[in-house]
Design goal:
The chain has 292 residues and is of the alpha/beta class. It has one domain (3-290): 3-Layer(aba) Sandwich (Protocatechuate 4,5-dioxygenase, Chain B), CATH 3.40.830. The protein has 10 helices and 12 strands. It has helices spanning 14-21, 31-35, 38-46, 98-110, 125-135, 164-179, 209-221, 223-227, 231-238, 246-253; strands spanning 3-10, 51-56, 71-74, 78-79, 94-95, 116-118, 149-154, 186-192, 258-259, 262-263, 269-279, 282-290. The strands form 3 sheets. The chain has an 8-stranded mixed sheet, sandwiched between helices. A two-stranded antiparallel ribbon has the order 4-5. A two-stranded antiparallel ribbon has the order 9-10. The protein is globular, with a radius of gyration of 17 Å. The protein starts with a strand and ends with a strand.
């Protein structure tokens, strides 16, 4: 059967992608951030999965305010990098895994989670920046991402957005779906977005280092309590865009120590953890967890 072996958590700041695409990674401002992902790039080479389920939020690229699904899974064979107003990022086409994606959709919907099935979409920085951070700069003319990717989009843009507990439970449903797939596959699940940041209003530029690191501790070591954090705490303490962190709880809920909404097994191994401020006007968090 297929099996989720690891989860990856990372911010997906668009300026990070721009820094990579414009050759700015060695500038003094950016060097500390990219140094925090050197371990991760080697880990990715040493632990290459067969498929990545990548949880992200679309930034009005594939979906507009005319139609915003709460949860959407990409079932296409490939996805083009999106033009977000300044041209597509110079990164490879993202190859999908229609068979596993369709199986996950079938299984998760039968577990009473409503998914929107997306057979065609372009993917923006929310998906391509995490891939670049973990895989490095690639030439789209001759390189490819190391494996197929299943895009899993979550609405954290327009309220109402899903609760942390809803996302946590969805992760468990995704793991059950993966484990019922009749093919031996090594699967990673990635949760992206966050950490604390606010892009508008009187608190624009807010970063809360203490809250971020406490939340990371809780997500890793007490995930049920983390899943119970109410929306108002994210908005008050992590800024209006801090709510993106609920997407990390999908990946955390998919780990092997969680069943029926509780911790029932040995904790995952924390392979790597990193935190840095600022990147643009955003805090960057990152962790890799492996099932034991």
């Amino acid at each position: 059967m297929a099996k989720i072996t690891a989860s990856v958590f990372t911010s997906h700041v668009p300026a990070i992608g721009a820094a990579m695409d414009l050759g700015k990674t060695h500038e003094d401002y950016w060097k500390p951030l990219f140094a925090g992902y050197e371990y991760s790039k080697q880990w990715m080479k040493d632990n290459k999965p067969d498929v990545i389920i990548l949880v992200f939020n679309d930034h009005a690229t594939a979906f507009s305010l005319d139609m915003i699904p709460t949860f959407a899974i990409g079932t296409a064979a490939e996805y083009k990098p999106a033009d977000e107003g300044w041209g597509p990022r110079p990164v490879p086409m993202v190859q999908g895994h229609p068979e596993l994606a369709s199986h996950i959709a079938q299984s998760v919907i039968q577990q009473d989670f409503d998914l929107t099935i997306v057979n065609k979409m372009d993917v923006d920085h929310g998906l391509t920046v995490p891939l670049s951070l973990m895989c490095g700069s690639l030439d789209p003319a001759k390189d490819a991402w190391p494996c197929p990717v299943i895009p899993f989009a979550v609405n954290v843009v327009q309220y109402p957005v899903p609760s942390g507990m809803r996302c946590f439970n969805l992760g468990q449903a995704i793991r059950k779906a993966v484990e019922s797939f009749d093919e031996d596959l090594n699967v990673h699940i990635w949760g992206t977005g966050g950490m604390s940041h606010q892009l508008q209003g009187a608190r624009a530029g807010l970063i809360n280092r203490e809250w971020d690191n406490h939340w990371l501790d809780m997500m890793i070591n007490d995930p049920v309590a983390c899943a119970n954090v109410p929306h108002i705490d994210y908005v008050r303490d992590a800024g209006s865009e801090g709510i993106e962190l609920v997407m990390w709880l999908i990946a955390r809920g998919a780990m092997a120590d969680i069943s029926n909404g509780k911790v029932t097994g040995p904790a995952p191994k924390v392979t790597h953890r990193f935190y840095h401020v600022p990147a643009s006007n955003t805090a960057v968090g990152h962790a890799i967890l492996e099932n034991t």
